[in-house]
Amino acid sequence: MLQQMCKDFAETELKPVAAQLDREHRFPAEQIKKMGELGLLSITVSEEYGGAGQNMLALAVAVEELAKACGGTGTIVSVHNCLYVGLLDRCGNPEQKEKFLRPFTSGTLGCFALSEPDAGSDVGNMSCVAVQDGDHWVLNGTKSWVTSGLEGKCAVVFATVDKSLKHRGITGFIIPIPTEGLSLGKKEEKMGIRSSSTCNLILEDVRVPKENILGTVGGGFKMAMAQLDRARVGIAAQALGIAQAALEVAIDYAGQRKAFGKPINQLQAVKMRLADMAIRLESARLLVWRAAACCDEDRRTTKESSMAKLAASEAATFVAHNAIQILGGMGYVTDMPAERHYRDARITEIYAGVTDVQKLLIGDLIIKEYS
């Protein structure tokens, strides 16, 4: 039922405007509002706070259908669900949930600000600092690559209370937008997922009341890493949607385009390419669904989530690349969506943990598991 609702919404509300949103780098404000009304911005949030109370598998299925129509919209929905409302629902106290979760379940977006210009994969190198001043904490620094930063009305911002403590000093702070001292950087001009905005958050003497600390002082790193396990499932689902869209474009074109007196889908080389594309996609989907199910077991799922994210993101790039090869020149022009799918797919190997880091994590965990 959820999957069909998302499929219908994507076909009628997203697919017809996806190319235009991409060309104009335009945020899908009207569609986000409608998705909020449908409960798609709080899929896993408990019903007590206005959410749908669904599981991570439901979220993965929903994100895939939405991303199939528009990769950028898939990003917005995935990040908001996994890294803002999902985080508040899991780690916030009742007062924080009432103030910063409930209003964000039906159309208002929140943000997740962990990365910095010099602290991406190396989060322990964080330079955004928080200094206690009575009943407040004063934050200074710059957070980068913040999805929906231009539209979001609140952000979970991570800062260190003591640089010498590295990971153990990182703490999460809930900061409404706008807040005095908090400014937004320029909108990044991106290769793909252009309907989602990305910008820096610049903090200059931002005062945050102590009751806005999410979790515990110094507990931010573990909290963020645990939530990123879930976020990687969301990004993996987005990658599946992009890959599915690219595969369907290739299959449709191969059935219509004729060469040597017959449709090119009758050529052995094209058949073999389509087979490889479908196998990579469907194999990745099984890993994503497995990781989503593991997330609902209320345990750390770093291995399963990293495997899913790695497989799905590489599948998306592989499928999108081969779709362009099947379309030939038509795959390279904007008249067809294949080139957009390729551009959208590329980011899935980068954000929420680059491919190289996923392999290192998986390798470490496999060695530990079998030792």
UniProtKB/TrEMBL annotation:
CC cofactor: FAD
Any single Gene Ontology cellular-component annotation: mitochondrion
Family matches, as SUPFAM superfamilies: Acyl-CoA dehydrogenase C-terminal domain-like, Acyl-CoA dehydrogenase NM domain-like
GO biological process: butyrate catabolic process; fatty acid beta-oxidation using acyl-CoA dehydrogenase
Keyword annotations of the record: FAD, Flavoprotein, Oxidoreductase
EC number(s) reported in the record: 1.3.8.1
Gene3D superfamilies: Acyl-CoA dehydrogenase/oxidase, N-terminal domain (1.10.540.10), Butyryl-CoA Dehydrogenase, subunit A, domain 2 (2.40.110.10), Butyryl-CoA Dehydrogenase, subunit A, domain 3 (1.20.140.10)
Pathway: Lipid metabolism; mitochondrial fatty acid beta-oxidation
Domain Acyl-CoA oxidase/dehydrogenase middle: 111-206
Molecular-function annotations in GO: flavin adenine dinucleotide binding; short-chain fatty acyl-CoA dehydrogenase activity
Occurrences of domain Acyl-CoA dehydrogenase/oxidase N-terminal (ranges): 1-107
EC class (word): oxidoreductase
InterPro entries: Acyl-CoA_DH_CS, Acyl-CoA_Oxase/DH_mid-dom, Acyl-CoA_Oxase/DH_mid-dom_sf, AcylCo_DH-like_C, AcylCo_DH/oxidase_C, AcylCoA_DH/ox_N, AcylCoA_DH/ox_N_sf, AcylCoA_DH/oxidase_NM_dom_sf
Keyword Oxidoreductase set for record: yes
Domain Acyl-CoA dehydrogenase/oxidase C-terminal: 218-364
Alphabetical list of Pfam families matching this protein: Acyl-CoA_dh_1 (PF00441), Acyl-CoA_dh_M (PF02770), Acyl-CoA_dh_N (PF02771)
Catalytic activity: butanoyl-CoA + oxidized [electron-transfer flavoprotein] + H(+) = (2E)-butenoyl-CoA + reduced [electron-transfer flavoprotein]; hexanoyl-CoA + oxidized [electron-transfer flavoprotein] + H(+) = (2E)-hexenoyl-CoA + reduced [electron-transfer flavoprotein]; pentanoyl-CoA + oxidized [electron-transfer flavoprotein] + H(+) = (2E)-pentenoyl-CoA + reduced [electron-transfer flavoprotein]
Role: Short-chain specific acyl-CoA dehydrogenase is one of the acyl-CoA dehydrogenases that catalyze the first step of mitochondrial fatty acid beta-oxidation, an aerobic process breaking down fatty acids into acetyl-CoA and allowing the production of energy from fats.
Similarity-based family: Belongs to the acyl-CoA dehydrogenase family.
Protein's name according to its UniProt entry: Short-chain specific acyl-CoA dehydrogenase, mitochondrial
Organism this protein belongs to: Callosobruchus maculatus
Lineage, opening ranks: Eukaryota, Metazoa, Ecdysozoa, Arthropoda, Hexapoda
